[in-house]
Amino acid sequence: MNVTVQLVLDFQRQWGPQFLWLGKAAWLLDPHQRLGDLGEFFFCPFPGGNAGIGKATAVDLARRGARVILACRDKARGESAMYDIRRDLSRSFFQESGNSEVILMILDLASLSSVRDFAQTFLASEPRLDILINNAGTYWHCPGGQTADGFDLVFQVNHLGHFLLTHLLLDQLKRCVPSRIVILSSGMHFFGKIDFQTIHKSGEGMWKPIQSYCNSKLANILHARELAKRLEGTNVTCYAVHPGEWNLHTHTHTPVHLGLRQTFLSRNCDAGAQTSIYCATEEGIESLSGGYFVDCHLLEPWSKARDDQLAKKLWEFSERLLGLTT
């Protein structure tokens, strides 16, 4: 039986109490361990899919026999990532399966029509989806603004795009149980707030992209929390993940003091990918669905991310924005 996993990249950098958790998970996962029935891995990098923890996750799972589908906003970068991963696999000492594949598809989370087109194409061509990893996203140092759909760019890419994609692929996940959903968040959710009057709107000022990023990371945890409740009894489980501070080597928009901080405090991408891989593959964590994981351990997020009423309201709000309500 083949299994499909979806990953959406999130190029995150964080500061704060999460530094206490750095470095614990770098080699927790045995690279020789097979993925059981996992035979297909669906990988969606955005933006710049040729670097970061998403690529590290894809390489790791492909080494274990998974099938990798790169869903990239930029075709040229996607092809570069695809060739890089194929090259890494060909050189890998740990690769044990001859059925690993790397395939490219196009997806832009900043366009809701692209998300819908991608889901339609994927469902028409792929018979299974077993693990969906929503790891793609944009970062506050990237240029902000408003999408063509009329929403704040950071909020749409980091939350609404994932919410819609998960909704469109959920029936496929239910047909392939047991299946999992992993949603990348961040310790920066501590600074987030959910103001339903403004969270989806773009704005001006140097702090707006930063606040939008923090808001979206809080929304990611609340999304996972409410999704887990709605999936009870279906044998589909979901998990929110903080990958830790990691070094993407892309500091174009990063202020000097943050770039220096990141250089000394960040982990490498292989280590940053471990918690996503853990939540996607570890046996026996099904009862922890809806939980928040850091360094392959279940931790409590900040109190605002444990507000079940807020999670329900955000779910209903997201549905209205996306036109998913009748």
UniProtKB/TrEMBL annotation:
GO MF assignments: oxidoreductase activity
SUPFAM superfamilies referenced in this protein's UniProt entry, alphabetically: NAD(P)-binding Rossmann-fold domains
Pfam families: adh_short
InterPro entries (UniProt xref): NAD(P)-bd_dom_sf, SDR_fam
Keyword field: Oxidoreductase
Gene3D superfamilies in alphabetical order: NAD(P)-binding Rossmann-like Domain
Protein family membership: Belongs to the short-chain dehydrogenases/reductases (SDR) family.
PANTHER family per record: DEHYDROGENASE_REDUCTASE SDR FAMILY MEMBER 13, PHOSPHATIDYLINOSITOL-GLYCAN BIOSYNTHESIS CLASS F PROTEIN-RELATED
Protein name: Dehydrogenase/reductase 13
Organism: Pseudonaja textilis (Eastern brown snake)
